[in-house]
Design brief:
The chain is an alpha+beta fold. It has 14 helices and 16 strands. A hairpin with an 8-residue loop joins strand 9 and strand 10. The longest helix is centred in the middle third of the chain and has 18 residues. The chain is elongated, with a radius of gyration of 28 Å. Bound molecules: adenosine-5'-triphosphate and magnesium ion.
Length: 422
């Protein structure tokens, strides 16, 4: 009987040991950034009531219409794997009273789930880093959120490969007035629109602006424009934001067609895009969503946030060779143990050295084997030094200098290592 090996679910990736240093590097850069801006981490479950996403993201969005992993649990409740973080973040913050009359600057990082066609930069389990700031109206917090994303690109060495596109959707009232105008205009061309856009006409008319169909785009050329529906106050605030960006030297492009796929945005929306990843061009996207907290049962709370696709950033770091070489070096000291009598002795020696030198990374070869084969493994580990325990001797060999091993006693050994790894 042949046993078929079980494979991972399509579009859900394993991160293998040779890939995790890259992940750790990106995660560490993100953590450092969040420390520097004094944002606080929030963690929430991967599973929520389906209703949470339906209410927040919107029924007529791609995510809710066709991408969510939804199922009934054993109690018959409809649950969904989180397709994004904002709704869960608000649910958690609201549930624990973090939003009532308070300012919060929060961030999260973790897996999200969407049933999409897997391809480069698009997966069914993917990781997002997201920022959500609550309780602050106005352009200052908008600028901070944009500046911190720009700082991340700079820290990662990716700034020249990413461009910022930005738009102002105005107030929720402006957005709906524009939606109505667009709706009446497009109704006249209903039969000429692509299929998706026909469906969106009543459900989510602004999304039609995103349509990739050339016919639809042609029809849109003469459509009412969003700028004509924006309040003076909203426009003034937006211009303040743009002037801060100019002063900070952050380049941007205004794009009046940028509406974002999710229903909950108003005011400023933005995307960081790249030409390096083909069709998966958007690396980070977000904007203001002042109405959402209330929609989910909370008070009136101005809010702004973004989500960044971590796999897409990693692909850029790898393709553009921006990953620092030293992240792959995992071992400083490799301990080779020759002969049965040295196994326990070597393990305990490693413990001693760790106590004296807690920062160095020590790999003890526990699998036995001959001197030469262990030395080969030591070279492969890219350790700087090898300790060889053989008979009664401890020999220290420095690999990068390629000097032959010197024999040391226990006391000298620690001093010598302190010297090398200081
Ligand atoms: P796209 O247009 O590429 O489908 P989106 O508008 O659905 O993106 P958002 O919901 O705004 O994406 O999510 C923010 C970011 O998360 C995206 O810009 C992207 O970098 C990343 N992302 C979204 N979906 C996926 C996915 N299926 N696989 C990998 N990354 C993703
Ligand atoms: Mg999508």
């Amino acid at each position: 009987m042949s046993k078929v090996k079980i494979q991972a679910i399509r579009g859900m990736n394993d991160v293998l040991p040779n890939q995790s240093p890259s992940w750790q590097y990106l995660e560490q850069q993100i953590r450092q950034l969040m420390v520097a801006y004094a944002y606080q981490e929030i963690r929430f479950p991967v599973l929520e009531q389906t209703q949470l996403f339906k209410r927040s993201i919107g029924d007529a969005t791609d995510i809710v219409e066709k991408e969510m992993y939804t199922f009934e649990d054993r109690n018959g409740d409809s649950l969904s794997l989180r397709p994004e973080g904002t709704a869960s973040c608000i649910r958690a913050a609201e549930q624990h009273g973090l939003l009532y009359n308070q300012i919060q600057k929060l961030w999260y990082m973790g897996p999200m789930y969407r049933h999409e066609r897997p391809q480069k930069g698009r997966y069914r389990q993917f990781y997002q880093f997201g920022v959500e700031a609550f309780g602050m109206a106005g352009s200052t917090i908008e600028a901070e959120v944009l500046l911190l994303s720009a700082a991340l690109w700079q820290n990662l060495g990716l700034d020249q490969y990413l461009s910022l596109e930005i738009n102002n959707l105005g107030t929720s009232a402006n957005r709906s007035a524009y939606g109505e105008a667009l709706h009446s205009y497009l109704l006249g061309f209903k039969d000429d629109l692509d299929e998706d856009s026909q469906r969106r006409l009543d459900a989510n008319v602004l999304r039609i602006l995103d349509s990739k169909s050339p016919d639809t785009q042609h029809i849109l050329e003469k459509a009412p424009v969003l700028e004509d529906f924006i309040d003076k106050d909203s426009q003034e605030e937006f211009e303040k934001l743009l002037s801060i960006l100019n002063e900070a030297g952050v380049k941007f492009k205004l794009n009046s067609r940028l509406v974002r796929g999710l229903d909950y945005y108003n005011g400023m929306v933005f995307e960081w895009t790249t030409e390096e990843l083909g069709a998966q061009a958007t690396v980070c996207a977000g904007g203001r969503y002042d109405g959402l907290v209330k929609k989910l049962g909370g008070g009136d709370t101005p809010a702004i946030g973004f989500a960044l696709g971590m796999e897409r950033v990693l692909l850029m770091l790898e393709d553009l060779q921006r990953m620092p070489a030293e992240i792959n070096q995992e071992v400083d000291l490799f301990i080779a143990l020759i002969g049965n009598e040295n196994q326990a002795k070597g393990l305990l020696l490693a413990e001693n050295i760790r106590q004296e030198l807690p920062a160095i990374r020590i790999f003890t070869h526990c699998g036995g084997g001959k001197y030469n084969s262990q030395l080969k493994k030591a070279y492969a580990s890219e350790a700087r030094c090898v300790l060889v325990l053989e008979a009664e001797e401890i020999k220290l060999k420095i690999l990068d200098a390629d000097v032959s091993a010197e024999v040391l006693d226990n006391a000298d050994l620690v001093n010598k290592l302190k010297d090398i790894f200081k």
